[in-house]
Recover the amino acids of this structure.
């Protein structure tokens, strides 16, 4: 019922903070084919993905420059949770998916997201490899497009299938 748009949640390559990079928004669909009906689209926004990243297992990378800091490249919604795939950091060959309940990310008010709602999934993709996109399948599994964390020419793009995150999340290379 919604179209989601998320900023990278990283500083620039030179380490500059840009407030617009730290926002997630969603637009309520008018129907299955249109965002806008007879008027303006219904839009909600939240800054709570910053809370989500700060409560995750990669919190130490939050706010650091783009190549080593948290850098969102993919987003998917499944089972009432919002999942973000991180292009960076990559720690010892692991890339990361961080998630929290959608209802809590977009809750009314200004209260921060509670740490216990956040989940981090380590995904072994290899050195210098991160998420480039995520897609949720109807059965709860996630497709991952992986690629270089920066622009390493020796890192190729691959498609992976990640089992249901709540069920142990087995990873399988598809390409």
């Amino acid at each position: 019922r919604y179209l989601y748009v998320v900023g990278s949640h990283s500083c620039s390559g030179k380490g500059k903070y840009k407030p617009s990079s730290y926002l997630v928004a969603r637009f309520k669909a008018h129907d299955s084919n249109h965002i806008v009906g007879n008027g303006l689209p219904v839009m909600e926004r939240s800054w709570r993905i910053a809370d989500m990243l700060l409560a995750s297992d990669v919190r130490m990378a939050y706010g650091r420059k783009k190549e080593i800091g948290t850098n969102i490249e993919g987003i998917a919604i499944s089972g009432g949770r919002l999942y973000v795939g991180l292009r960076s950091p990559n720690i010892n060959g692991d890339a990361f998916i961080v998630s929290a309940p959608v209802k809590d990310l977009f809750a009314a008010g200004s209260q921060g997201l509670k740490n216990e709602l956040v989940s981090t999934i380590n995904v072994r993709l290899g050195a210098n490899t991160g998420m480039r996109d995520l897609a949720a399948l109807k059965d709860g599994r996630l497709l991952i497009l992986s690629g270089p964390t920066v622009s390493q020419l020796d890192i190729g793009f691959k498609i992976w299938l990640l089992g249901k995150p709540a069920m142990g999340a087995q990873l399988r290379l598809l390409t």
